[in-house]
Write a structure and sequence with these properties.
By secondary structure, the protein is an alpha/beta fold. The protein folds into three domains: 2-88, Arc Repressor Mutant, subunit A; 92-158 and 268-298, Periplasmic binding protein-like II (D-Maltodextrin-Binding Protein, domain 2, 3-Layer(aba) Sandwich), CATH 3.40.190.10; 161-265, D-Maltodextrin-Binding Protein, domain 2 (3-Layer(aba) Sandwich). It is 41% helix and 26% strand. Strands 3, 4, 5, 6, 7, 10, 11, 12 and 14 form a nine-stranded mixed β-sheet that branches. A three-stranded antiparallel β-sheet has the order 9-8-13, with no helix packed on it. The chain has a two-stranded antiparallel ribbon with strand order 1-2. The longest helix is centred in the first third of the chain and has 29 residues, at 60-88. The radius of gyration is 31 Å and the shape is rod-shaped.
Length: 299
């Protein structure tokens, strides 16, 4: 590495015509610059510069060597420009991992954003399972629930309240519950491996702040939130959905919220990045966009 540094110093000496001028640019003393050039010459056993009290001139081999040093410096400057452009503008491929239930609220916003930048492309992995960010080269993952300790960088970007929903057909066939205990014998649809996937449910009353734990009967366990919601709409049982996931179905009268004063959890939504990617423009802007989309959906 020291050798490459000396090559860059040599190129600046030739470009500027003197040791002192190169030293001023590189924040080095003329003697330190001269010493680095001598190391280069001693390492190769070849004289690169003719020195006099008035000027410097290249030897024939020094002139050829200078061209390679120029190329080295140009490549380093291009590499630095690439990094700086990543910080300033979204470029290259952005690899995203997003849960199924969240992805549908982001597609329009992500598509419109990506169209603004011709040098940006998106790769979207939609899956409720937590994939390996390093192995899959993921730049940004959206995760729901509590974040385990890890070496990744996680920032909370939103939250969602989990309400209880059934279909209108379910309400026709069952008495509308008045308390959490009324749902103990009901058939439930649970998200497999999810935060609310167990039979034991914790209920919180938003008005009285009362909490209760009720053991429920899990009839169907499903690993896909869209299928879970679809089965709930078809009357197969009670399910817990976030208010923004259920919003459209409630508006279209496909679902009805029961026990509206109660919820079964408040889940945080996180933007998770490997530390190495956390400062690029594409990641920063994507996090802000996703946060705006989710907050608009929640509200």
């Amino acid at each position: 590495m020291d050798h490459y540094k000396r090559m860059a110093i040599f190129a600046k000496v030739v470009e500027l015509g003197s040791m002192s001028a190169a030293g001023r640019l590189l924040n080095m003393s003329p003697s330190a610059v001269s010493q680095q050039i001598r190391f280069l010459e001693q390492h190769s056993g070849i004289t690169l510069l003719h020195r006099s009290t008035r000027k410097l001139s290249l030897t024939e081999l020094g002139e050829r060597y200078y061209r390679y040093c120029q190329d080295l410096c140009a490549a380093a400057e291009q590499a630095q420009s690439l990094l700086e452009s990543e910080i300033e503008l979204p470029v290259g491929e952005l690899r995203l991992a997003v849960p199924v239930g969240v992805a549908r609220y982001l597609s329009d916003g992500l598509g419109a954003w990506a169209k603004q930048f011709p040098d940006l492309s998106l790769s979207l992995n939609v899956d409720d399972e937590h994939i390996d960010l390093i192995e899959q080269r993921i730049d940004l993952a959206i995760r729901v629930g509590e974040m385990p300790d890890s070496s990744f960088i996680a920032s909370k970007i939103s939250e969602m309240q989990m309400g209880l929903y059934v279909s209108p057909e379910w309400l026709k066939a069952n008495a509308e519950p008045e308390s959490p205990e009324d749902l103990q014998q009901s058939e439930w649809l649970n998200l497999l491996n999810g935060h609310l996937g167990t039979g034991l449910k914790h209920f919180w009353n938003m008005n009285t702040l009362e909490s209760r734990k009720i053991e429920t009967r899990s009839k169907f366990s499903i690993n896909n939130i869209l299928i879970l919601q679809q089965m709930c709409e078809q009357g197969y049982g009670v399910c817990a959905l976030s208010t923004f996931e259920a919003h459209d179905a409630v508006r279209k009268q496909k679902l009805v919220r029961i026990l509206p004063d109660w919820h079964v959890g408040q889940l945080n939504i996180w933007a998770v990045t490997p530390q190495r990617n956390s400062k690029s423009a594409k990641v920063r802007q994507a996090i802000q966009l996703i946060q705006n989309c989710l907050n608009a959906a929640v509200n």
